[in-house]
Predict the structure.
Amino acid sequence: MKSPQHIYISALGLYAPEKILTNDNLAEFVDTSDEWIRSHTGIGERHIAAENEQCSDLAVKAAKYLFEKNNLSMDGIDGIVVATATPDYYGFPSTACIIAEKLGLKGPAAFDIGAGCTGFIYALEVARAMIKSGSMTRALVFGSEKLSAVVNWKDRNTCVLFGDGAGCALLEATDEEKGILDSTLHAEGSGSLSLVIENGGHAIAMEGRAVYAFAVRAIGDTIVELLKRNDLTIGDIDWIVPHQANKRIIAACSKRYNFDPSLFYMNIERYANTSAASIPIALSEMEDAGLLKAGQKILFVGFGAGLTYGGTLIQW
Ligand code: UT7
């Protein structure tokens, strides 16, 4: 079999649950304020899934949006890769198998990837490599999270930070000069206990300061690594789409590494931190707003539990 030349994102979709929880709503049941949350994180509100809406439901709605928006058929989808920290079931079946069933797909490769908030970057690279090798041809890559189900709603240190949602990208091969140019994946296991979902999926615990310091360094180092080994400078980059965890992390990283802060696409104000879903949600939203144009060079950068981090360099 001839190995496909380039693997690219051919379509994007997102879903954010209907219910919105504002900072003021939160301040009604936990000791916090809109002022504290905005000034420390940049978050204004988050979407919260309904009780009967699981991770797979959010993902399926994102996929349906992708197919309807682009008037595409699901023919030939033979891969479902799901990055999530909040699967429908802890253990098995994988959320990917449930999504395949809900979409009516027969016999695709379907599996979940756990790499915390870096999950989408890992999933994209696994799917890219599998398409390149010929073991899949058309893959749906998801980041989908129902973090509201694992947040301790009495802990103001964490419950204000997270939200629910899903994003998805359709990945396939092309002979055109575009698509994924490079990617890098890392983990610093020494920090693994600084961000944990404890008790079989019932409470997020985080050492905020330690993760903050790691995040600033991880984002900066990932960007520098991808630029260097592709003989690029930051001036060649049109957009950086970072995992959305805290507006201040991006500001600190821009300052320390001398990046123009306006290169970073930010939407944390409206979604909070949706973990593995944040990058595909941002991408889908950017596409809808007409911000993604052919020929642009774009960097995705993820970081989170693990402590994992990594990035993707793509030509649109
Ligand atoms: O996506 C995975 C990756 N996760 C991250 O990247 C998160 C990284 N960490 C962060 O973004 C920040 O560390 C936080 C937003 C979590 C916290 O911000 P901070 O500026 O590091 O605050 P802090 O934890 O040092 O707390 C400062 C003060 C404390 O009060 P005292 O001890 O100074 O009296 C906290 O108790 O703010 C207090 N505080 C709050 N006050 C009101 C903590 N959370 C809240 C809150 N409302 N929600």
